[in-house]
Design a protein that fits this description.
The complex is a heterodimer. By secondary structure, chain A is mainly α. Chain A contains 15 helices and 4 strands. The radius of gyration of chain B is 21 Å and the shape is globular. Classes of the chains: A mainly alpha, B mainly alpha. Chain A: This is Sugar ABC transporter permease.
Chain lengths: ~350, ~325
Amino acid sequence: MTTASMTPVTKGPELNKRRRVYKPNAKYIPILATLGLLAIMYITGIANYDNFGDPSVFVNLFRDNAVLLVVAVGMTFVIITGGIDLSVGAVISLTTVLTATLLKGDWPPLVVLPAVLILGALIGAGQGAVIHFFKVEPFIATLAGLFLARGLALFINQQSIPIRNETWSAISDYRIELADGVVTKPNAIIAVLVVIIAAAVLAWTRFGRNVYAIGGSSDSALLMGLPVGRTRIVVYTISGFCAALGGVLYSINSTSGHALQGNGYELDAIAACVIGGVLLTGGAGYVWGTLLGVMVAGLITTIINFQGDLNAAWTRIVVGVLLFVFIVMQRLVTRKAK
Amino acid sequence: MNSIVKNRLFWPAVILVVLLVVNAFTSNQFITVQNGHLFGSLIDILRGSSALILVALGMTLVIATGGIDLSVGAVMAISGAVACLLIQDLPNQNAIGPVLGVVAVAIGVSLVMGLWNGSLVAIIGVQPIIATLILMVAGRGIAQLITDGQIINVQSGPYATIATGFFLGLPVAFLIAAAAVALILLLTRRTALGLLLESVGGSPTASRLAGIGARRITIMVYVVAGGFAGLAGLIYSANIKSADSISAGNLIELDAILAVVIGGTALIGGRFSIAGTVIGAILIQTLSVTVVAIGIPPEANLLFKAVVVVALCLSQSPDFRAKVFGRFKTRQAVAA
């Protein structure tokens, strides 16, 4: 009797030890692979092009991809619950158009900013509610949201609206000096803050654990007594909020609002999540992975810019090939884990 | 009567008829005969919806097996780009034989694209939405590479006929779509193929254990979807007599999925309705035509579409009907 109950106790740690000696935890493999790829791409860039190693090239990645980063972080939450949010690109365009229109109407910026952010969150919450209460599939519900948000944006104005508000141009022109000769914009700082907050929420809060639990199996989560409905609605609310924040960053970047801004961002965000190791089946993934995914996509564009004589179409093809490689790798890793 | 109302296709069909009636009253020519062929807004709707019908038809089969194909728009762009590139190099663009050859090559390329999707899904076992996302992202880049980022214009009579020609008084594009629908209806409803598709969609594992070549059937539906998308791409590019790798088939995957869902095919697979898909595709096209016909300003075009789509999706959700109308009904019963 005693020996039988003793065996599992001694077996457990031994197995863990062995695993640590041979290989890293299987759930970190996709993220480590992305990190490795990023390092290889960066080193190749330094070896091939002059000035590629300049710290500003790396820092500019955050500035140039701030919008995508913020949107992809929101998407990460949704994908980890096993859902998808196709409306983010349209919410970006609605936000930029609305921001530009309201600022043109001399609304104070301190009213406009919370108003558009709340609107984005409300659109997300509405989609989450439809998905949860009416059991409409996320794909279809957020597709309807895409049409609705872009329809609203086009209804407000089909033309590009310039933003001449002082606060907006001040933020747009503001430079932050990180080190000698390395400057960045407030957009990049905001994006990095969003990543840090999201990573902390996902890793260390009860809500974060619930998100993973629902993605693993929403039925089991429900039977465990977790607030499945509330969590799911909040997740889409976060995605809507992030999309609206992305829209605000976009409007700061371009100092204009246009209904076609943000077109296709939903796909870029999903692709960044997948490259970053977030499983589209739900239940697995990290915000850090998404960050790496966005960096990889940004670095491809940078390398193509440095090369200079390459067709811009190569960006899409390379992203497609990378998607393929990572998806197949994920597939092999998850198969082994099972 | 009750069984007709409860049919999944009842509400989409009602909306389609209402839209067509609105159209008949608002457009100055609904259907007339001109130059020996039919003419008018009804014919425009049929002609305009043919590409969407083709794409949605392939999508229906894919969704029936529990998959989804996001790459159809990109395949449309590739097929148009290949066709225009080859026609441009023909010595005589108006010779029918070579143009038919080019069409065959373009469709062949599309079939290969479908085979790629199908292999990823069935052999490597990648989730369909991600597997086809790859080609959706990369495909448009490939099309841009083929056309070298330019818009290739062609002046080929036979090629333009695919989209703008008439045969027996009906638009050729619509006849192509109708033939495809008839072929698929015949194959899925008169042979065991439809049953096998639904069985694979219901449970691939159970189908395999029952002796069905689930893997082969899954690959086949993606190949068919690719072929139909290629055909739709030819219709699109023949209509504008050029290859536009950026706007060809842009967002058509979403419209096609919408047409399938409106037609009562569940996205989880295991059941499908070809007739429903055709109604859904024509409904979407009619909606765009009607919006213009009844004088809704163009900037509200998409908004109007969005409202109709939201209403349709909600009306098809059993939970929505139970929660909203169910409450209403019980109160009535209590009052009575």
